[in-house]
Amino acid sequence: MCALLRKSRDQVLFPDYSGKSRTLFRSKRSISNYYDWLVDLHQRYGPLVKVNQGLGRGYVVHVFDPEDARQVFATDGRLPFIVPLQETTQRYREMKGMNPGLGNLNGDEWYRLRSSIQQVMMRPQAVQNAHFRYLPYTNEVAAALVDHVQNEGEHSGGEVDMRKVAGRWALEAAALTVFEKRLGALGDRISWADTLVSLNHRIFQLSAELRFAFPFYRYFSTPKWKKMVELEDKFYREANLLIDEAIRKLRGSTQAEEEMKFASLLINRKELNDKDIAVILLSMFSDGLSTTAPMLIYNLYNIASNPHAQDELRKEVNAVVDDKKGGERFMSG
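Structure tokens predicted for Unspecific monooxygenase:
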């Protein structure tokens, strides 16, 4: 990769930024400054920076320029090399005899799993009919979210913890696609949903701390690693109940393939075993807590901070709603 990027520039420097980078993450407090550290790297050394991670963990090349990133992805080929997204999760899954998942695989095994998912998601019928097949799901959960926010506000003097609400919404929305059922995360199982959201949050926190600390946990079970395993066990226990139920319910479906939704298609693919199916469903169910939910909060914040954008958005949505619902308005000031 470095050789490729050198060709794209007249001059590229790869400083060994080892001393400061190794000590920066020894304290828990400094992890929250990771973004600032990356900004500092970029300002000091430019768009390409090679960093020694120390302790024999190799190097990381930070690619800050979008054009360089495009070139890297363009040359990935059939079997790109993927650094594990979360080494702690990879180690946990291997320890438990699970499929590591797409984010932790490479080579032919990655390609086998990736191509199976792609065939399900990118079928011509799925792409052409996605709005008919999945939009009702999206609308159903969106309506439940609006009602839930209103109810929360009425019971708390108008203040709503949107971080919690976003996590509940992410679980509920994912479940309709992944398990083809409602969970009640926005209704009668709020406490259960909040527990899962909290577990996921603590798992990510510990993963970050272990990622940037000395990797003693690789060689013996440290207190943080033991806690990590405990939290993962609790989260997976709940998720596996849902996954096992979905596999039992949807396997052997008598629906025609063009009528099946994503989970049914995936579960009935003969080239995938139960471990493959389980880790795909697990990833789709849980990953939204660290991706979709924060993005919802980010977008809501930006809309709330820009009243003119609110007005434009309201006009656009109401124009479409008016056309579809004969003048009934769903958005007001």
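The beta strands are 48-52, 59-63.
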